[in-house]
Every structure is written in structure tokens, then in C-alpha cells.
Amino acid sequence: TAITPTEVTVHLRNPQTSRVVFDHYQDSVWAIEHDFMDSSYSALYRSMHDFLSATPRRRDLLLGQRQPETDQTVGLRGDYARDGRAEFNDLVLHAKQARDLYLIIGPPGTGKTSYGMRNLLEEYLLEPDTSVLLLSYTNRAVDEICSKLVEIDGGRLDFIRLGHEFSCEESYRPYLFSNKAAQCRDVTEIRQMIHRTRVFCGTTTSLCSHIDLFQLKQFDLAIVDEASQILEPHIIGL
Questions:
Q1: Which residues contact 109 (CB under 8 A, 6 or more apart)?
Q2: CA distances (Å), origin 192, targets 59, 114, 123, 163, 229
Q3: What is the distance between the alpha carbons of residues 101 and 60, in angstroms, rounded to a whole number?
Q4: How do residues 175-186 score in pLDDT, each as one tens digit?
Q5: What pLDDT, in 10s, does the model give residues 105-126?
Q6: How far apart are CA 174 and CA 149, in angstroms?
Q7: Predicted TM-score (pTM) of this structure
Q8: Residues in contact with 43: Cβ distance below 8 Å, sequence separation at least 6, in sequence order
Q9: Phi first, then psi: what are they for 165, rounded to 5°?
């Protein structure tokens, strides 16, 4: 949870109830390694099973064996020609007309998140009763998404972030689902909060751990940031 040139502070996933082991080895040098939970691997197996049990039409799309469909009658509600760059209107329009999927490709620093994701999100929020799911592979990338969300509508956009407190930048922890749910009086209020919140964000791993969300919430659009970092089992089930 913190690191300095002389000290590392860790939060144990499984707390130790006795200090004996630490006191006994207090003059020793410790090695700190990442740990992994079996549940994350189980989610990958479930994801592959979801793909194998999908409809032939869905599998053909994901395998590139049929062309993604578009709807040329769809138009824009907003104007996104910012900083003198009119091409962002075309990008948002083409993405909105895509019925299956749309890829935004470009090297770092070309505005895929700052313009592409944000403009597309704002356009969908102009449509009544729409909900959007924002995903990325790393928590740092999700923090970057949150930094864009708090800028929308003067900071008045309400969103929910899935994940653990220690994996989230401190300034965005009030948006964590666990912290928002703690303010609700009962399950009914939690369901109402989920229903009225239009934007959810998190890592692919955290969403796989909250897969029951799809039983309570339907999303009109999913935006996967930095998707080229993600292996198929992490995303194909979602």
C-alpha cells in the first residue's frame, strides 16, 4: 500500500492473527512476491466456456468469419470537433453506427482515451436511458479513465468503479461500489443505485468477479481501453 526508499507497507490478503512469525524473524530479510487467486483462473475458464456455448453468429463475429454490421441511418446528437480537430465527429459517428464492434487504433498520445473514449461516452449519454461499461486491463488505466470521467459535465457525472480500495487511486475511492453501497440502507437502495447509475468502470478481472451485475444491469455500450493488452480469455466472455 506504500513504498519509500527504506520501507514497504503491505496489506495481507489473509491477515495473520499472531505476530510470532514476525517477531521471530524480525532481523531477517523478507522477499515480497505477488500472489494469485484461483478465482481469477476460474473466470478465464468460464469465459472460454461462454464463447464455446455462444451462438454461431456471435462466434463467427469474434473469429472474424463475418463482417461487423453497421447502421448508416444513425446520426450524432453532439458536436466533438474540439481543438480544431473535426475528424473526431467522424470517429464518433462511425463508432456509433457500428452494431457489433468498432476498433480505434493508434500509438500512445494520439487521443484514444482523451478524445475517442470520452467523446463516444458523452454521445451515448445524450441518448435517453443508456448505460455504458468502461473497461481496461490494469488498475492504472482505469484510474486514467476515472480522471476523464470526473471532468465530464463539470464533475457532476455519477459513476461506479468496481474494484478494491487498495487498487484504486485515493481520489477515486468515493466512487467504488463498496463505498457507495455502504451508504445505502438496504438491498433495495443498492438495486436502485445500480439502476440509476449510467456509467460503470473497472478492470476486466474485477468485472469477471462481479459478473452478477449483468443480472441487474443492461449496458448499451462497452468501451475497452488499451484492448490490445488483453488476452482473449480475459475479455471474450464479457
A1: none
A2: 34, 30, 24, 20, 34
A3: 13
A4: 999 999 999 999
A5: 989 888 898 889 999 999 999 9
A6: 13
A7: 0.87
A8: 205, 208, 209, 211, 237
A9: -60, -35
